[in-house]
Design a protein that fits this description.
Blueprint: H1 2-7, H2 12-20, H3 26-37, E1 41-49, H4 50-59, E2 66-72, E3 74-76, E4 82-84, H5 107-118, E5 125-130, H6 136-141, E6 147-150, H7 155-162, E7 170-171, H8 177-197, E8 207-211, H9 218-225
Parallel strand pairs: 1-2, 1-8, 5-6, 5-8, 6-7
Antiparallel strand pairs: 3-4
Helix pairs in contact: 3-8
Pfam families: Put_Phosphatase (PF06888)
Organism: Durio zibethinus (Durian)
Keywords: Hydrolase, Magnesium, Metal-binding
Length: about 230
């Protein structure tokens, strides 16, 4: 897609301008900042790309809130063109996932790696947020005591509803920015209280939040914007 855009005369500055106009609800921005302030370890697992995500995070002052970005690598070449590469090089070998994951990225594999890195620490609770079909696989990887926050009436919500009784993680849906903020902070508060009641205050805020940010829609936004006179 980027090759086609650049062939039409679209410059990296045009892409940046569109990314900065990508809407993120004000309550979602505040929820991310609040979760970070409470000590949550926020990580991004996204099928966008590094340039898109970092541009949007920087624009909204959210870059420092995230400790890790798992996405498709990208860079700007010597001709000023954005080059994007797959997170998983499916041209060499498929990732082998049987769930509806795109060939370039299985988020479930990413979550398994994160879970493995946490296994040597005290138990941490994972809150996974998402809306796309690629968020179904990682939702299935979550265990008892974890939470998944699917966006209601979006692809991942539809898939989860079909097997909700088989989900190990508790499902807490949301529809808009206000519900997103309320549900996320409510879950963090609940987890914190559970730790206090169990006497595990040393790990009071060791909540590991996997935030699927909005820039998955940025590519569509760019495609729409370049067809408009501006």
């Amino acid at each position: 897609m980027m090759t086609e855009l650049h062939s039409q005369g679209i410059k990296i500055e045009d892409i940046v301008a569109v990314l900065k106009r990508t809407p993120i609800h004000a309550r979602i921005i505040q929820a991310i900042k609040s979760a970070h302030a409470l000590g949550c370890d926020l990580k991004i697992v996204s099928d966008a790309n590094v340039f898109f995500i970092e541009t949007i995070l920087d624009h909204h002052g959210l870059r420092e809130c995230f400790s890790e970005i798992n996405t498709n690598p990208s860079f700007i070449d010597e001709e000023g063109r954005l080059r994007i590469f797959p997170h998983h090089d499916f041209t060499k070998s498929p990732h082998g996932c049987h769930h509806p994951c795109p060939p370039n990225m299985c988020k479930g594999i990413v979550i398994e790696r994160i879970q493995a890195s946490l296994s040597m620490e005290k138990k941490k609770t994972i809150i996974y947020l998402g809306d796309g079909i690629g968020d179904f696989c990682p939702s299935l990887k979550l265990g008892d005591g974890d939470y998944v926050m699917p966006r209601k009436n979006f692809p991942v919500w539809d898939l989860i509803c079909k097997i909700r009784g088989l989900m190990k993680a508790e499902v807490c849906e949301w529809s808009n920015g206000e519900e997103f903020e309320y549900m996320l902070l409510h879950l963090i508060s609940r987890i914190s209280m559970n730790k206090i009641n169990s006497g595990n205050t040393a790990q009071l805020y060791s909540v590991d939040c996997k935030l699927q940010t909005v820039p998955g829609a940025a590519r569509e936004t760019i495609s729409q914007a370049i067809s408009l006179p501006y």
